[in-house]
Amino acid sequence: MFDAASFIEESAQKMKDEIDDIAIIACSGGVDSTVAAVIANQAIGDRLHCVYVDTGLMRKNETKEIQDMLAAHGLNLTTIFAEDRYFEALGDVTEPERKRKIIGELFIRIFEEEQEKVGAKYLVQGTIAPDWIESGGGVRDTIKSHHNVGGLPEDMTLEVVEPLRDLYKDEVRDLARELKIRVADRQPFPGPGLAVRCLGPLTKERVHVVREACAIVEEELEAAAAEGKMEIPWQYFAALLPVRSVGVHGDVRAYGETVVVRAVQSLDGMSARYSTIPHDVLAKISTRITNTVKGAVNRVVYDITHKPPGTIEWE
User: Fold this and answer.
1) Residue 307 C-alpha from the chain's centroid
2) Which of 13, 117, 150, 247 could form a disulfide with 254 if both were Cys (CB 3.0 to 4.6 A apart)?
3) Dihedral of CA 171/140/241/95: which sign?
4) For position 1, what pLDDT does the model report?
5) Residues 129 and 69 in one domain
6) Is residue 132 very low, low, confident or very high in pLDDT (cuts 50, 70, 90)?
7) Both 151 and 219 in a single domain?
8) Spatial separation of the C-alpha atoms in residues 161 and 174, rounded to whole Å
9) Do residue 171 and residue 208 come from a single domain?
10) Same domain as 55, residue 23
């Protein structure tokens, strides 16, 4: 049985022994990176510099929530606002592997800039087992490159430290509960953010649409679970598809895109089954999305694919 308290003690001691200089960590506010940051902070204290990058691809109100949460744990946090840099780098890129690699490399370049400012030698990451398993290598096929694995540039100068590398999501959540981190049960959010939930051209306008749609899905499913209508899914979100269809807004023809709602149950993210959502909840989600982003979206569908054969995210 996994012993969270022992793992924290052993991992902190190992980092204390191995990290002999200043380190920075890519702290996204998700459970993986937050757990890694809190353990690293126990190990090396003021020598750890936490860097949160607002890529412009985050969920609604996420940056403020992350800043507040990390401050509550006493972490030394620097926030980098890099929205324009990310949209410029991604341009018209639509192929998901290219997106992930571009996002991953820009992450590292930003950290290298911070490294120069603070003189860091090490990069601590919240990489977990599914990240490097799905990113391929050796005899493993590449399912999808995770930006903190497949997106790392070969010429990076930082030494990577990954204290959670051999753990699965359920074990990391156990660590978060032991550390009393409030995001212990927070649903996973992909490192590349909304870039992999916005299929097709990445524009600020299209990302705004999927951001609003994701917020609506989260609000409605959490409300339905609180009312006892359903079990809260393990992960739940919306993705914007580059699929246009004819619709009607009032008496006017509309030619809008499609939002797909995705909700799954899983233990560790390696496999998943789609969640059964009551039809009245789906209907409310659909109505809210099409009313909120009028003209941009005129069709909402629900994904009933398990993993495998699908993955949880669409890209």
Assistant:
1) 18
2) 247
3) positive
4) 84
5) yes
6) low
7) no
8) 21
9) no
10) yes
Token match 């890129």: residue? 93
**pTM reported for the whole predicted model:** 0.79
- β-strands 252-265, 159-161 pairing: unpaired
Binned at pLDDT 50, 70 and 90, residue 94 comes out as very high
Q: Which amino acid is at 180?
A: K
Q: Is 36:25 a contact under the CB 8 Å cutoff?
A: yes
Number of Cα atoms under 13 Å in the Cβ half of residue 265: 8
Q: What is the DSSP letter of 43?
A: H
- 125 shares a domain with 214: no
How far is it, in rounded angstroms, from Cα 208 to Cα 188?
20
Cβ partners under 8 Å of residue 94, min gap 6? 199, 200, 201, 202, 242
- pLDDT per residue over 216-260, tens digit each? 999 999 999 999 999 999 999 999 999 999 988 777 788 899 999
Q: Are residues 20 and 152 in the same domain?
A: yes
Residues 149 and 213 in one domain: no
Q: What is the CATH number for 151?
A: 3.40.50.620
Pairing assessment for the beta strands 252-265 and 297-302 based on DSSP bridges = parallel
Question: What percentage of the chain carries pLDDT values higher than 70?
Answer: 93
The neighbour count for residue 46, using CB atoms within 10 Å, is 8
